[in-house]
Amino acid sequence: QVQLVESGGGSVPAGGSLKLSCEAFGFAFANWGMDWYRQASGKERELVSSISSRDVITYSASVQGRFTISRDNPKRTLYLDMRGLKTEDTAVYYCHVSGTNYWGQGTQVTVSS
Fold first, then answer.
1. Which of 9, 44, 75, 109 has the largest count of CB atoms under 10 Å?
2. According to the model, what pLDDT value does residue 9 have?
3. Which phi and psi (to 5°) does residue 26 adopt?
4. Do the Cβ atoms of 102 and 4 come closer than 8 Å?
5. pLDDT tens digits for range 82-94
6. In 3D, which of 101, 108, 104 has the Cα closest to residue 41?
7. CA distance 55 to 78
């Protein structure tokens, strides 16, 4: 059974940093691309960053240069290192297996001014 468990969310002031983690269970993690999405209150869920099974990485324009996605295949874990956080980064962040309907439960990130 596929399970994605996120952690690392919290509340920080603008300009602060957080690192999210997503531990994966129940599938061959190294063989799959992984994504981070986020959903702010009252808005649609949006793609933040992706990393393929071959470590090809993409970022949305809104986080380029501030966020870093990475993966540790032996640990079956996906990461999102977020720096220079802005109030508009406030959202629930979700881990996702690319091209599937497998989602984590989400972790709240709140950035205060």
1. 109
2. 97
3. 90, 10
4. yes
5. 999 999 999 999 9
6. 108
7. 11
Distance between CA atoms of 102 and 113, rounded to whole angstroms? 33
pLDDT average, residue stretch 12-24 = 98
Per the prediction, the chain carries an average pLDDT of: 98
Q: Which residues contact 23 (CB under 8 A, 6 or more apart)?
A: 4, 5, 7, 75, 76, 77
Structure token digits, residue 16 = 């602060």
- The average pLDDT across 42-68 equals 98
Q: Decide: residue 49, CB within 10 A, 0-12 exposed, 13-18 middle, 19+ buried.
A: buried
- Give per-residue pLDDT as tens, 26-42: 999 999 999 999 999 99
Q: What is the rounded CA–CA span in Å between residue 95 and residue 77?
A: 10
User: Per the structure block, which two tokens stand in for 26?
Assistant: 């129940």
